[in-house]
Each structure stands twice: as structure tokens, then as C-alpha cells.
Amino acid sequence: MPLYHDDDQAMLADSARQFMADEGAITKQLRHWRDRDCKDGFGHGLWKQFAEMGFTGMLVAENDGGLGMGHVEAGIVLEEIGRNLTPSPFLTSSVLAATALAHGSDDARGRWLPGLIAGDSVFAVAIDEGGKHRPERIKTRAQKSGNGFRLSGQKDFVLQGASADMLVVAARTSGDDNDEGGITLFAVPRDAANMTHEAVRLVDSSMATHTKFADVELDGDAVIGEVDGGRAVLNQMLMAGRIGAAAEGVGVASGAMDMTVDYLKQRKQFGKLIGEFQALQHRAAHLYSEVEIARAATIKAAQLLDAGSEKADLMASVAKAKVAQAAGLAVREGVQMHGGIGMTDEYDIGLFMKRDRALQEFLGDQYYHAGRVAELSGY
Amino acid sequence: MSDLEAFRTEVRDWLAANCPEEMRKPVRGEEDVFWGGRRAVFNSDAQKQWFLACRDKGYTVPDWPRDYGGAGLSAAQAKILRQEMSSIGARLPLSSFGIWMLGPALLKFGTEEQKKHYLTQIARGEIRWCQGYSEPGSGSDLVSMQTFGADEGDHWVVNGQKIWTSYADEADWIFCLVRTDKSNKYQGITFMLFDMETAGVSTKPILLISGNSPFCETFFDDVKVPKEQHVGEINRGWDVAKYLLGHEREMISGAGGGDRTAGIGAVIKRMVGEIDPVLRAQLAQFDVDALAYSAMGEKFLDEVNVGKGHPAQPNMMKYAGTELNKRRHELMMAAGGSRALEWDSAETGGGKAARGWLRTKANSIEGGTSEVMLNVIAKRILDLPGA
Asked: Which among A261, A296, A377 is the nearest to B287, CB-wise?
């Protein structure tokens, strides 16, 4: 398969780009909700529009009412989300939770997927425990209780946790904290008793929660996939989410870079456009190179995942780490090359820096993923 | 799709039958590379067998037309052949500046007669080519070159000097930039082809910091070049030169895969056993970059094959690929420790690590420096002012 978009994907890219630039623009969404102290951090109206565009259920199988598309396509939408810093529950709901639900029972899929596809439901994923992404260790426990389970523990960095109609929770049903096995995924509805959210606003104005489970009673239907056999589904979710986050990061990087290169062509100092200075030209050219490479790694990872290749896991970590480097560089150079106005709230470049920072942490930062590349390579 | 899968099966079977085991082992050094040419010597029967099998199948230049010695493969078929060769670690049957640099220029600018004659020779490995571009006073500012061809009716008489001519002392013919109009900087250069055995041509190897001499100085002293031996129009050789440079940069970038785009952490672990934690972190970061660059190489070639992608993209590939390769060798030296310092011991294959490390320092100079690459990206891709 060639490593560029085919005709259908190019068409999707065109419409997603147009849609997001019009409807998902920074003033219309990010600044709008931020300046109103929105408790969700995104607009439900836009989420309905995502549904009308066919985005919400793009990864859902056709048998379940979705479009049955792949991660290359989801990445196309995410790149535009990144470029416009569009706040939405797309990555958590339509990529991560949808990937988990694909492994759910007929009942679970029937209960949750129609709301997602219609843009009525929002899902969150509760994986992290503590300040860093370390899904190898899961302490949150679900004890068998009658026909169901009782869930106890705490999850952190649950994006849109307080807004979600359902949370996909990774919990331990057997074994020790660091065991590979013994993991079970649960679909926990928003109204579950004894689940409490401490909502926090993050640096990029998105909303996350520290979510506590104090003997939350779940019936057996809440299990997604196999009891004790959830690690495989969790890994599948993580691959999809990491590649999705990488695609969004490529958009953030491109958006910041384009803005910066435009600025170099407008701003005059010493009687010249600052883009005439070779010191800035070389840095901009280096940045371009890094962003291009990050994009290639991301498309490659998405193609491998869609093809069911065993190399997808390694490439997902390569993409997440490489995008983090490139996007980090893009936003730092962006602020620096904008000079003083780059530090103002009025100017958008700083928003890219904030979004990048949050995206870097989500599902593992570049250090975590570089370490993973070493481990998967055998050293 | 099924046609391509059938082709993949066919290629696998052909490789199984024709690629000797010995030709599936990593290249140990220059002695394992077959360059062809009048004076070519095979270093083993396996090398000869592999070359002849590929030559007869058109697989020295798989995507060139059959009329010119290629196999006439489509882009998708050529990619499959590349993937299958790579998966068994097959060596290149023929390495050649004719294939990588002159060939593409002839395909674009050559006359039908030139294509038939020169391309077939290249495909069959009969003539080894070298490139006459740089001069002592014209490095990054290549277009300032002074080697001059005086018009003598049916031929030119060429005088001047080229430098950094790779393997000039082993080459049969040269493709050479010669000034034919001193009053016009860009439109006063002609792209000439001539035999290195022509009277007045001499070469002198340059000893490099690696202790090897892959480059030469090349002198022209009243060299007669027949008028029909030019590519493109007279005085418009700069267009050919620039086009060819794109291919040279693509070649140096290592975009095609192979060792240049693989990770090194696992190899180093096997080699040295224990890795310092900070070095391990650096290796991990390197492997991220190398594997990401490998995807970039694949994307770049896929896009080239269908005419997508920015025409100046080879400059980006060359910049990123050569900087990466320098980093690779810095890390290999660090991992190798004092053993890697040995200059001529048998255990190190005659100082392979140290000499290889030093050789890579030329990567970001030859074919256009990294700084020139960044200039080109700034100007042609980012459209920055005054660049």
C-alpha cells in the first residue's frame, strides 16, 4: 500500500479540512468555550455536527451502524482537529472507546454505539493512575460480587470524565499490580453510584477528572471483552489512541509551523522581512523536515494498524515519540519566532503550545515511547 | 491487487532460485560492492552469479523500460521487488552512479539514440561513470564553475579541473559540467559525456581523514569532446545538472531503505552486551528518528513514483538522512569504546568503525551541504523571502 492518501482519503481530507476550518476554528470553539468557563471544555453542538459529517462513528463497524473506516481515516480527521485546536471528545469517544467497544458484547455495542454515532453520547477512558502514563501497572481493582463486580480505586487524567455518559475503565480483576494478565475493561455508566469526579481544568483549557471509585457496583454486562483477558483489548485501544494522538499532534505541529512561517513573511525588523534572515530560515527549514518525518511515521503506523500488522505496536510508539519531538519543536520555535506577541493571550500561537503540552502527556510522552521502542527492539 | 500479489509470489520464487545465500549477508565493506565497468572484477562466484541473474532479468534497473535494459516494472511492482529483496537482505546486484544519477537525467533529457546506447550500457554494468561537478573554487556555489570547452566546430576542447570526483580513477566515462559561454552564468554550461581514456584526462586520488581515497582531483588538458556527446541543449546544461542533483541527493539520503534507515540499539546490544543507561536513552531516541525516517523514505519514494510531493523534497531527504547517518556513527563509536578506535587491526576489519565514522562526515557536504539544503527548503518549499 503506498504511503499517501488514496482518492477517497484525499476527498475526506478536503472535506475535514474545510469543515474544521469553518466550524472548529479557534475563535468559534476553543476561545469561545474557554472564555465562558465551560464545564465540558467543548461544544455539544459541534459534536452533533461531527455526527452529521460521519466522523463520530467512522471507526465503528458497518454492522453496528458505523462507517467501518480505518485509522488512516480517523487520523485525517484528527490532523484537522489538531490544526484548529478544536476541542471535542473525538479521540476519547470515537477512537479509544469505540476501539474497546468493538470487542464488547452485542448488548454493550447496542447500548452505547448508537448514541456515539448520533453525536448524543460522549465517552471517556480511565487508564492512568498517577501523574504519568504507565498502563503496565494497574491497581484499580474490581472484585467479583454476586453476578457483578465492585470497583475500587482512582483514575487520573480522565479527559472529559465529568462530561462522559460512559467511562471505559481498565481495572484489575486478579493478580498483582504489575501483572500483564488479570485486567478487565468495564463500561461504567455516568450514573453509577459511588463514582465521584474531581474536575480540573488543564493548561490547554480542556477538562479532565480525578475519578474515584468507592465500591462502585457493576453488573456483569458492564464487562467489555473477557474477564481477566482485557489486556489485549487495552493494548489495541492504546495503539489506536496513540496513533490518533500522534495524528492530532501532526496537525498541531503543522498549524503552529504554518502560522510561524506566515509571520516570518510579514514581520519587518531592521528594514527587512525577518524571514530574509538565514538564522531563521534554517530553523524553519529544519522544523519543516521534522514535521514531514513525523507525519510519515504517523501514516505508516496507522496503515500498519489497519492492516493488523504485528509491527503496528512498535510504529505506534515511534510515531507518538517522533510527533512529540516535532510538535514540541514547532510550538517552541513558534513562540520564539513570534517574539513578544507570541507571549500574549490575544495571539493564537501560545494556544498551540498549551495544546501540545497536554497532547504530549496523553497516552505516554516521548520519553515513555522512546523507552518502549528500546524494549520492543530488545535492548 | 491480486495481480500484485501474484507478482510478489513470482518475485519470491525468483529470488529463492537466483539470489545466492552469500549475497543475502550484510555488505562488509567496499570489497562487497560491485560497481561494474570495463575493469570490473567479481570478488566471488556468488557475486557474479547474482549480478548476471539480475542483469538478464532487467533487475539492475527494475523500473527502466525493457528497451534500455530494465525490467519495465510499474512503481508498485518495483516497490514489491524492493521489499522482497530487503526482507531476505539481498545485496544490490550493481551499484552505479549511472543508475542513480546519470540514468534519470538521460531518461528525461536524452535523445532516443543516447538512451538506447548509454542506458543499456549502464543497465548491463558495462560502463562505470563518474561525476564532474565541483571545482576547487566552486563548491556550494557550483554554478560559478570555470572548466571551459572551446568550440572547435565539430568538437570542444576542454580545459580545467574538477574535484571530489568520486572513483574517477576507476571510472570509464564521466558526465561533466563544462562552461561553453563565459558571458552567461546559468545559461552558459553544457552537460557533456566523455571517455576517461581520452587524451588529456588525468586523475589523482585525494587522501581523506578516513585514510581512504574515494574522491579524486580530475584534470582536463586539451581534451577533445565530440559535439554529439552532450545531454540537453548546448548552454542549458544547468537544467540537466539540477535535475540530476535531485537524484544525487535522493541517493545520498538513503531514502531507499537498507542499513541507513534501520534502528541500531538492538545491534549494539548484541555487540557490546551492556549499554550505559544514558547511551541507551540516546540510542532509543535515535531509533525513533531512524524508524520514523524510514517511513519518510517510503512515503517519499511512493510520492515520487506518482509525481506527488514537492519537487524540492529530495533536499529535505538529503538533509535529514545525512544528519541521521552522522549521528548513527557517532553512537556506534561511543558504543564501540576503545575497540572502535583501532585503525588497522584484523579484529576490526581494518578499522571499519573508525573509518566509516569519519567517512560519514562527508555525507552532509557532498552533493550539497546541509546548509545549502536548508537554503533550498527555505526558498523553494517554505517560500521565504530573499532566500
From this structure: A377
List own/partner pairs for A277-282 with CB under 8 A and 24 or more apart: A278/B375, A278/B387, A280/A337, A281/B374, A281/B375, A281/B378, A281/B382, A281/B384, A281/B387, A282/B371, A282/B374, A282/B375, A282/B378
Beta carbons of A289 and B377 less than 8 Å apart: yes
Please provide the distance, in angstroms rounded to a whole number, between the alpha carbons at the two ends of chain A: 30
CB A186 within 8 A of CB A222: yes
Rounded to a whole number of angstroms, the distance from the CA of A334 to the nearest CA of chain B is 15
**Domain CATH for B217:** 2.40.110.10
C-alpha torsion sign, points A244, A223, A121, A364: negative
- Please tell me the predicted confidence (pLDDT) of residue A1: 84
Q: Using CB atoms, pick whichever of B284, B378, B382 lies closest to residue A371.
A: B284
CATH topology of domain A232-377: Butyryl-CoA Dehydrogenase, subunit A; domain 3 (1.20.140)
- Cβ within 8 Å, pair B275-A379: yes
Structural domains counted in chain B: 3
Interface confidence, given as ipTM, is 0.96
CATH class of A125-228: mainly beta
Q: What is the pLDDT of residue B260?
A: 65
Residue B257 has pLDDT above 80, yes or no: no
B213-244 confidence digits (pLDDT tens): 989 999 999 999 999 999 999 999 999 999 99
Strand spans (E) along chain A: 123-126, 141-145, 148-159, 166-172, 183-189, 195-201, 207-218, 223-224, 268-269, 272-273
Query: Which residues of chain B make contact with A294, given a CB cutoff of 8 A?
Result: 292
Q: Domain check: are B193 and B278 in the same one?
A: no
CB-CB neighbors (< 8 A) of A272 in chain B: 386
Over residues B358-380, the mean pLDDT reads 96
Assess contact for B264 and B286: CB atoms under 8 A: yes
The Cβ of residue B245 has, within 10 Å, a number of other Cβ atoms equal to 21
Q: Are strands A148-159 and B189-195 parallel, antiparallel or unpaired?
A: unpaired
Q: CB distance B375–A278 less than 8 Å?
A: yes
Q: Which residues partner with B247 through β-bridges?
A: none
Any idea what DSSP says for residue B347? G
What is the pLDDT, as a whole number, of residue B1? Answer: 57
3-class state of residue A248 by DSSP: helix
Q: What is the pLDDT of residue A334?
A: 98
B275 vs chain A: nearest CA distance in angstroms? 9
Q: If you search the block for the grid coordinates 519543516, which residue do you land on?
A: A288
Closest-CA residue of chain A to B386: A276
Residue B190 CA to residue A332 CA, distance in Å, equals: 46
**How large a percentage of chain A has pLDDT more than 70?**
100
pLDDT for position B198 = 98
- Length of chain A as a residue count: 379
Q: How far is B285 from chain A (nearest CA, A)?
A: 6
The pLDDT assigned to B305 comes to: 87
In this prediction, the residues of chain A whose per-residue pLDDT falls under 70 are: none
Question: Judging by DSSP bridges, how do beta strands A166-172 and A195-201 pair with one another?
Answer: unpaired
* pLDDT, position B255: 82
Q: What is the pLDDT of residues B56-107, one digit of tens each?
A: 999 999 999 999 999 999 989 999 999 999 899 999 999 999 999 999 999 9
Q: What is the mean pLDDT of residues B276-286?
A: 96
- CATH number of the domain where residue B267 is located: 1.20.140.10
Beta-carbon separation of B288 and A371 below 8 A: no
**CATH class of the domain whose range is A7-122:** mainly alpha
